[in-house]
User: Fold this.
Amino acid sequence: MGDRTLIHTLPFSRAGELSTLVENRRAFTLDSLELNIYETYRVSQHVPLCFDDLVMINMIQGKKIMHLENVKAFDYLPGQMMVLPASVAMHIDFPEATLDQPTQCTALTIHKEKIAAVLDYLNEFYPKEHVNQWGLDPDFFHLYNSTELADLVNKLFQIIISENPLKDVLADLTFKELTIRLLQSQSLIALKIGKSPNKVLLHVQEFIQKHITEKISIGQLERTAHMSKASLTRMFNRELGLSPMEYVIQQRIEKAKKMLLLTRNVKESCYGAGFNDVNYFVRLFKSRVGMTPGAFVLAR
Assistant:
């Protein structure tokens, strides 16, 4: 997981519209998508929930404790997303919900034909290189929203709740882009923990980690992957949503975070993560993380 990017809070129900104080539900239905907005206004335990379709769940405000079968209970907080197949039973605790500070989350249910159509399109026109077909990975059902994911979720939600007569078409286009970003986010998680099915990506990642403190060029990555620059770039862009050198920068930032927590020294973390200019490192870190390295240390 990485840094959280929050989904915008949606308008809350008015008092006269509430049918219950626990998981009060409003639904906005399109042809193959349904946006459910849930609000809870009092402390509750073991509230059951289950969906008949694939569902993308986003926590927007407050805190839940999630209980899923064969998964250790975990805190579910704003900035996190879950993607669950149909018919997964959940039981939810609301340890902090009040009338003044209710919880809010969304559940976007998706007909199986719709997600299958997006995957079929990707597999036909943008097939993966060296690996199996595109598909949602159930092992990586719980993730943080990247900036790209959060922006697309916010856009999709605003389309769905709008009165635009073309919202079915607009929602369809945005959903396709959201699905691609979600697949790429899962691929990044799999690569990070060494479980990517793409052996070429794993080999390149190992090279980057081994040489993270050194200068790394696109030519070195090409030779490591035994691929042309065009093929290597296409593979990274399709499967991870970023270029090879952008991935190097991302890995340097992650290395710098770890060093900052360990050393609490900005200069040492800069050079230890492979950057050779402290001022550039500070600017880049702030643009990617949302705060300076010094502020990152103080926040931990």
Notes: Strands lie at 24-29, 33-40, 44-49, 54-61, 64-68, 71-76, 80-84, 90-94, 103-110, 142-144. The mean pLDDT is 94. Residues 88 and 131 are 28 Å apart (CA to CA).
